[in-house]
Specification:
The chain is mostly helical and 70 residues long. It has 5 helices and 2 strands. Helix 2 (17-24) crosses helix 3 (28-35). The longest helix is centred in the last third of the chain and has 11 residues, at 44-54.
């Protein structure tokens, strides 16, 4: 599974969701989906915009977590 650290990065940089969504051209609802690990996919253009706006790398926002086999 891919886990999102978007909420943590936003908190560290003191960026509000409404401001970030407006800056990257995303709806607040879609930003919330990304923040709360409910996204099924993310476009590279969206990932690029997030990284640019938050001054970070994709690995700062996303983490691969192996599924629990039990």
């Amino acid at each position: 599974m891919i886990r999102s650290h978007l909420a943590e990065v936003m908190a560290q940089r003191q960026v509000r969701g409404v401001d970030l969504a407006a800056q990257i051209g995303l709806t607040e609802a879609n930003l919330s989906i990304l923040k709360n690990d409910r996204a099924k996919a993310i476009r590279f253009s969206t990932l690029t915009a997030l990284c640019r706006a938050l001054d970070c790398q994709p690995g700062d926002l996303l983490e691969y977590v192996p599924d629990d086999p039990t």
